[in-house]
User: Which sequence fits this backbone?
């Protein structure tokens, strides 16, 4: 009986030992491969410029946008840009003129922010996470009055090409 009991214990021990012998070593292999590098071209070498993903903030004046070539290569190294804001008050009908002619005179406020070389009146930051994506934040943005409608346009370029956005109305 002792021999049978010893044989059963040894068989059980062998089965338990074999059951835990696997190749799973519970070691974390670490993070997978990083994101694919984004192909970029410096703005001075760009042969075409397209402005996309433009978002204007009418309260702070900040604008975010992306630059790419026609071949969809991200453009990095932007240093010169121009941003224009136009604020329009509620239109007023002027009826002081004789006859049936009534005119509206659109009075407006304009704010212009320019960066050319070292002279800048805004901060321009390129995203490290998304090459070719920029945030432009004007210095001293504000209105004297309270505009009902705000419109904005952005212009960027190099020595040979300039890209501009259309004058866009900002929804507040």
Assistant:
């Amino acid at each position: 009986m002792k021999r049978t009991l010893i044989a059963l214990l040894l068989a059980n021990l062998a089965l338990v030992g074999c059951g835990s012998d696997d190749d799973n070593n519970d070691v974390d292999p670490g993070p997978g491969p990083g994101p694919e590098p984004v192909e970029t071209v410096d703005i001075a070498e760009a042969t075409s410029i397209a402005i996309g993903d433009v978002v204007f903030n009418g309260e702070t004046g900040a604008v975010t946008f992306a630059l790419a070539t026609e071949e969809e290569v991200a453009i990095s190294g932007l240093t010169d840009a121009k941003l224009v804001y136009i604020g329009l008050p509620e239109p007023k009908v002027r009826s002081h003129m004789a006859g049936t002619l009534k005119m509206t005179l659109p009075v407006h406020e304009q704010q212009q922010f320019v960066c050319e070389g070292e002279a800048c009146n805004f901060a321009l930051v390129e995203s490290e996470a998304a090459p070719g994506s920029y945030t432009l934040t004007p210095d001293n943005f504000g209105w004297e009055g309270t505009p009902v409608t705000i419109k904005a346009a952005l212009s960027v370029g190099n020595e040979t090409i300039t890209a501009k956005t259309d004058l866009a109305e900002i929804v507040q």
Q: What stands out?
A: Residues 72 and 150 are 30 Å apart (CA to CA). The first helix runs from residue 2 to 19. The mean pLDDT is 81. The radius of gyration is 32 Å.
